[in-house]
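Hi everyone, sorry if this is the wrong subforum. Our group has a chain we'd like a structural model of before ordering constructs, and none of us has done structure prediction before. Sequence below.
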Amino acid sequence: MIRVYFDWNVVSNLKRNDQLKAVIDKHKEYLQFPFSHTHFKDLMKSYSPTNKSFFQDLEMLEQLSIKHHFNWDDERVVGHFVKPKDYFEGMNSYEQPDKTAMEEAIESIDKLSEEYGIKNFSALFNSILAMQLDHIDEQQKSNNLFKTIIPSLTSAKPNILKDAISFMSNLTTNNTFYKGFRKEIGTQGLKLEDNAGNWSPEDVFNNIDEYFKKNNINQTFSEFVESSFKGNTPKNPLTVFSMSYLLLDLIGYKSDKLPKPTDNMANITNDAEHAFYGAHCDYFVTNDKKLLTKAKVLYHEYNINTQVLSPEEFISVIDNVVHKPVDEEKGFINDAFEILKKGTFVNDSPPGEEIEAGTYGIMLPIFYFNYFNCTIYKHYEEEGYVFITFRKIFKNRSNFIFYTEAERILRFCMNFFGYDPILMEQHIKEFVYDNTKEKIEWDFDYGLIIIEKDELGRPNLCYAIDVGKDSQE
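Answer:
Right subforum, don't worry. Here is the predicted structure as tokens:
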């Protein structure tokens, strides 16, 4: 299936976008729309038992995703099956973190540490932090940026831990505070030039690196992000990606205006997470121009080939990549060759003394059978055989497929090439779910059709074609 990630704005506005709904309905058999916890972080902002719009949005999310869910498991993103309504029911409560809750957490830490004979652990931790900041001189302490982060630093008894809690609370929940902090960073000289928004996504990191050099920052942008994790391990791709996105906003690259009083830093981090989860799909679709551009920048930097599109662009693109197979005898082979001719060569190994067959990697211009996106083409000239192996490769962050993806392509092929209906369900179960069947084959007049699994359990489709027989006829 073709995997598409809609950010929350697209989902919530879908009920008003008839053209996009029509395209989804037209191709729904081939499209998959996973949801993530970040969708719920956005959705729950409008939660009220009496808010009809909330439940309409929840219904829309379920119609889209059905049960396909992305989940971060501390090391990577994995696919799970859960319906959005069940996911919502499983959320006992949802509250934005506030200062009181954080202070209560500290009290809990003190109570727990006291059981182990350590009283007032938070005070001890605060003292340790204070010692770490002893090297800061008085001029630095009076700096507005320091005073914003640690206002008690100049007092006789600074409470750095409490300041840090208050700072993080205000930063993540207070619109005015976040924008003031961002502005203060700019006054300290860490703000890009006004025309930075016109840079091409491919040039942004290099241009920022040059800007850092001119301002005596002896780090690249990536090193600057990495340094923010100093002493905090493990860092993971999600936090690195989100930190990079947030830093772009803080230094003035396509900064979010946060126009509503309720907007805050969480809006930006949610956008970052949507872009991160979108990087596990074929398409990431957003109608937020700033998010769209920043996602392109980060995808380029991290070698992610997911296409970033607006809803209007998605509507125009999807019709051109959906495959309409030709099913008459031999027609599907001619169809496959026509598609290969329009593909893009990514590597090739012509036949030679040590290579029996010419081997060519080709990226396809469409999703063959609305799943496969590349082929390995091998030509054994002396034997008169051609092997075309269709594969689904993820040139993005994904390294898994849902069972439903494997089942859909297998079921499609079995119906397309013909299969005993009595055996079909049994063999689908064995191939996809039980992992006891590795291969399914068909004979046809010009060779053999094979479906087999790769090392990740993804189905590959191979045509073994007797081109010598074809030429004789």
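For your construct planning: The first strand starts at residue 2 and ends at 6. Residues 323-472 form one domain.
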